[in-house]
Write a structure and sequence with these properties.
Shape: flat
Keywords: Membrane, Transmembrane, Transmembrane helix
Number of helices: 11
Helix content: 55-70%
Pfam families: TMEM164
Number of strands: 0
Radius of gyration: 19 Å
Distance between the termini: 24 Å
Number of domains: 1
Protein name: Transmembrane protein 164 isoform X2
């Protein structure tokens, strides 16, 4: 059986999701050097930024203890249902490897945040996930729906990514969780560095091992370096725009992070 439950349903007809081309565009030696050096850099950025964080201020106690509003419960039920349907598609289509997609991880986190009460821990998680809102936004600019052939499967793609962007804006305006000052970038440094670390340490080795979810084949070896540098700085501005409740985050050159780092 092996990986069949996770990768057997991924078709070779879509070259962006499978194939040896994306593995062979750089040497193993360079791939290992980049992974070790950049992962060390990401850990340093997260540690340094964490030490410089301002104390988290929670809402007043009556605000924390009050029951969830009908709107919040609606978003909780809606995202939970869409995410469950999406995982059902992955299981039936033998493509569960895609469950590690950052947007699916973010869906789990937002479900937890909607269900939980405000604490320093949940507020920290909320601020960190705000740095990953470029993912849902870019999913609309560069949709990956060719392999979605089940009825309603493409609809869940659009609904899920829309909710991932709508829910944080609702939470901010409801006052359940607070965000840092617009002039403070330590939380965005932590969130972005963790996202890049997640790609280099987990997704990249897993993709190479399974030869699936490879992203678009690359034609020059410095692609990952360019990608992480471009993403790190642009995501900071996207997060700050989202923190203001804007539906149009700043993206100078919007390219999906998966296209840089999945291989």
């Amino acid at each position: 059986m092996g990986w069949d439950w996770a990768v057997a349903g991924i078709s070779d007809d879509i070259p962006r999701t499978t194939g040896p081309e994306c593995i062979n565009y750089m040497t193993d030696r360079r791939r290992w050097m980049e992974t070790i050096l950049l992962s060390t850099l990401f850990i340093f950025i997260m540690h340094r930024s964490w030490q410089r964080l301002q104390p988290i201020k929670l809402p007043p106690l009556p605000e924390i203890q009050k029951p969830h509003s009908p709107t919040r419960l609606f978003f909780l039920i809606a995202l939970s249902m869409i995410f469950g349907i999406e995982m059902g598609f992955k299981l039936s289509g033998q493509s569960m490897i895609f469950a590690l997609n950052p947007c699916h991880v973010q869906s789990c986190l937002q479900i937890f945040l909607l269900a939980a009460k405000p604490t320093k821990t949940t507020t920290a998680l909320f601020r960190i996930q705000m740095s990953n809102l470029n993912g849902p936004f870019l999913a609309f600019l560069f949709p990956e729906v060719e392999g979605r052939t089940y009825p309603f499967e493409q609809a869940t793609y659009w609904i899920q990514h829309a909710l991932l962007y709508i829910i944080p804006i609702y939470i901010i305006r409801s006052g359940a969780y607070t965000v840092e000052d617009l002039r403070e970038f330590h939380w965005s440094h932590i969130g972005t560095a963790f996202m890049l670390f997640y790609h280099f340490v987990l997704l990249s080795p897993l993709s190479i091992n399974t030869k699936k979810w490879m992203g678009t084949p690359r034609d020059w070896a410095a692609y990952r370096i360019k990608g992480q540098n471009n993403t790190f700085y642009e995501v900071k501005f996207a997060q700050k725009k989202a923190n203001t409740g804007s539906s149009k985050p700043y993206i100078r050159r919007a390219i999906p992070i998966e296209n840089y780092l999945c291989c």
